[in-house]
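From the shared-data thread, chain only:
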Amino acid sequence: MSKNVLLHTLQSLDPREQQRFQKWVDSPYHNADEKLSRLLRLILKDLGVDTLNRERLDKALYPERDFNYARITNHLSDIKALLEDFLVWEHLKAQPAQRKLQLLNISRERKLEGLYQQTDRYFERLLKRQTYFAEPDFLLYQLVEEERYIAFTEQDVRALDQSLQRKTEWGDRYFVGHMLKTACQILNRRNVLQDSQILPGFRQFLAYIEDDFARFADWPHLSLYQAVLQMLLHESDAHFEHFRALLKRSAQQQIPYEEHKPLYQYAQNYCIKQANKGQAQYLGELFGIYQEMIEQELIYYQGYISPNDFKNIVVLGVRLQEYEWTEYFLDRFAERVAPEQRHNALAYNRAYFLYARGERRAALRQLTQVQHQDVFYLLGGRSMQLKIYYEMQDDEALEAGLHAFDNSLRRDRLLPDYRKTGYREFVRLLRKLMKHRTLPSPQRKKAEPKLQQELLASESGIHGDWLSKQLEEL
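Structure, as tokens:
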């Protein structure tokens, strides 16, 4: 059952935000009902619950009265409304330019000439200071010029004014930036999710941008997304190299994190796609991209590296035999994984690293430290363990492990069917390979073509390349 919206939203606030919200509700300007202040204190005091106990809360507020469901529900609804206003204000507090834009509009409408001029000068100074502009900035300055144009027309002066021209120019930049970014998002999603969605007017936009992009080329944001679009459309080494050159240059342009990271993710996804098509040199490019993201602190989300990125970096380092750097990464950056995920991320990836270096027994010892609450660690850890048993020719441990893994896969109701099928196929083929290895040489030679055909068919499946390699080594 889903959580109560009010409760879930309050739980998402950090302790300082909870304190500020309590002050917000305590303020008579925002709230004239003292009972709501008391009610919020009761809720915040016991935020670890899964549901709000309306009867208990009503009894605390009205000890002399019988429980009234509608009464307490109305109070909770009032707190939710106050919380919504608080969240909007907290968001606006972090966006001074948006607040100033509202002030520009208010001062113009109220005919507050001095305040209007003062606020207008704020935008002049902001424009001179700003070094990188993206769609929100283009839209902001378009709206500022709209306010300036309205203010000018309200003066009823017959004279030329540049605000309309500037408004049009900012609007063009916003339109081009928005269309470029949306086109890139659709093309990228089509690569990842096989999405067939088409951007309305896409062909017309491509023709327009091809004819007239020169007047937008001086804006780094637009040049970067134009390069992404060309890379995704043409999939050529030249277009990729052009985008990578712009991306490397962007390190000196003070690009905000929320704009910079998605650009690197386009480069990552492109490299993954090309590597999957057999162009192995793109693994090296992807490794370099990860290193740049670490250097520029773009790898983090809310201060932490995701377990998935942590694993991808280790796997890439191992595949490229960058063992020294990968070991440094494991030692130095494990602390940047979120505390609740850190132990497993380090234990599993160190096991993977040791296994790749041929230190099988050390890898097995490391795998015993992996906790299997996460399905990825369960599947990855178990299959790595089985591969080690096979390579060490410990058939007794391998047989027990295959049996236990197959049983757990059959019983697991949460695992998606395609993953369950893939891993059970791996178990089946590994069991066949183990038995094939124990056959006398004449029988093995006779059975080999059929087994080879099965393994070749599975090469695109889970650990298919490893299975085929083991048969070759026999």
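DSSP finds 23 helices and two strands in the chain.
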